[in-house]
Request: fold
Amino acid sequence: MRRAAVLAALLFLPAAAAPGVEPGFERSETRRDCANRDPLRQPFFGDLHVHTTFSFDAWGQGTRNTPRDAYRFARGEAVGIQPYAEDGSPRRTLRLDRPLDFAMVSDHAEMLGETDLCRSPGAPGYDRFVCVLLRRWPALGYMIVNSQWTRSGARRPDLCGEDGGACREAARGPWQAIQGAAEEFYDRSEACRLTTFVGYEWSGSRIGMIHRNVVFRNERVPALPASAIEHENDERRLWEWLDRHCRRAGTGCDALAIPHNPNLSMGEMFATRGPDGAELGAEQASRRAAFETLVEITQHKGDSECRPGRGEELCEFETLPEGDLEGLANPWAFTPLPDSGVFVREALLDGLAQEQRIGVNPFKLGIVGSTDTHLGTPGLVSERGFPGHAAGTVSARLEVPPLADQVEFNPGGLAVLWAEENSRDALFEAMRRREAYGTSGPRLRVRFFGGWDYPEDLCDSRDLVARGYAEGVPMGGDLPPVAGAGRAPVFAVSALRDPGSASQPGTRLGRIQIVKGWTEGGRPRERVFDLALAGDPEAQPDLATCEPPAGGADALCRVWRDPGFDPDAPAFYYARVVESPSCRWSWRACLAASVRCDGLVVPRGPLAACCDEAVPKTIEERAWTSPIWYTPRPS
Reply:
């Protein structure tokens, strides 16, 4: 306990001076400085993937929460969710046990106008057959309308007009409401309690999902969000549009695009050829790298760190079985995963190869997590009492056991940004420089530094963080070129457990690892190094009560030097911090339902999952840092 307290003081409390830290961020808005500012930066926890009733699929599944409700929820207020009584009151209510620091509503740009027309009595098109279908049988209506634009690349002329103009015009109202809610709930006072971003989801689909969450730096945004319909499902056109209509528009607009959890992309999220078959060149790679600095590694539809089934234990984590996408009304069901380009680690490795080929790394991606909630409930990541996220099935429209909301799904994760203060500019700059990490839900606090001269006792140093910045780079950075023969990079990784809350205590830490990826003879290589292990790795929680196992640590810190470093091989390194095992949400739901698996009573329907040995009862929650990259000197 004493070492944990010391680490907290060294790593996470505000400091008065910051030798070696980069200059402060530039303000793009008029506001007060936050009272709690730290030049050595602080971790801020948030959710950048949130859908409300303005999203076509969320509305179709009964969600009534608006962007205003989503931000109320983020700052700790209670909101209701479906089902609703005849008088309109919700039959279920949710509240976070701890508010978020930041959030972004990311409603789908696709069908933003169509949804508004179909749900607004008196609006043009309200009585059209497709709108009636959507209101009465939302799942069927969604399949029909969604397949219309994904197949043809065009909007429905019977609703939107021949040129789609009626639906684009109808999208202005929801887009203004999204901006208005972000402005209303953005705390510009010195308290800086909640930062909100204006944004949306660009939901492209070819063979697989190639969705992106677009986040704008400030309130200066385009008049309408451009969707994948206008861009013909070509992400290259999104980057060009953001460049032309935001960054170079002369309005002060700036934006980033965060690739959606890529596990349903069928390898297309990180494709090196465009839809037209053209190879990704240096110019397109540079544009992609400029806008896509982060990737969503986990969310409620699963985890995308690394490919399962290849002997690495921790890759068997919240993965969707191949082809098991029942209820998603998708064209990829029962389709085997391609051999590459699906998981984040594969993209990071391919980025090294692309940089050798064209001189630019298009996949230089930092890491975040989020929820992809379709209930308007950002940060709803607890394994306790998880009600589902109303995406993938229509079960959330009814008051049914949460296991009906696809047992393979999970509560999702969080994005964590290291920034000087909780403001838009500070957080946006953290996203741009990739000083970010993702968690599977817990609020773990993780630092990761890389350099050439860190001492072995750096974890015991009172100025660990200041030296980490001054003598090296933080997560998301690039190691400076190596000087002198026989040297190898040194990394410092430190973590504090999630302290939890009075009602939901956190779980102790189980281990720290560093994942290295590099190229050798032109071939991708990867290896996982164990740095710290706390307690018995085989210990499990009590499945009858979910009491945590003995052991574990409140804090872990290690300094590690790469024993197999090759100065001629490009490489990346990221840290993975893993908690001790705890009960998964699905098993907690089984306990709450008093399900018995002794053969005397056979559970049926969704509760049959409780006695399915293929459904895990425990989970090892975790955090993944953004990588640190090494690039050899040009020969």
Notes: The mean pLDDT is 89.
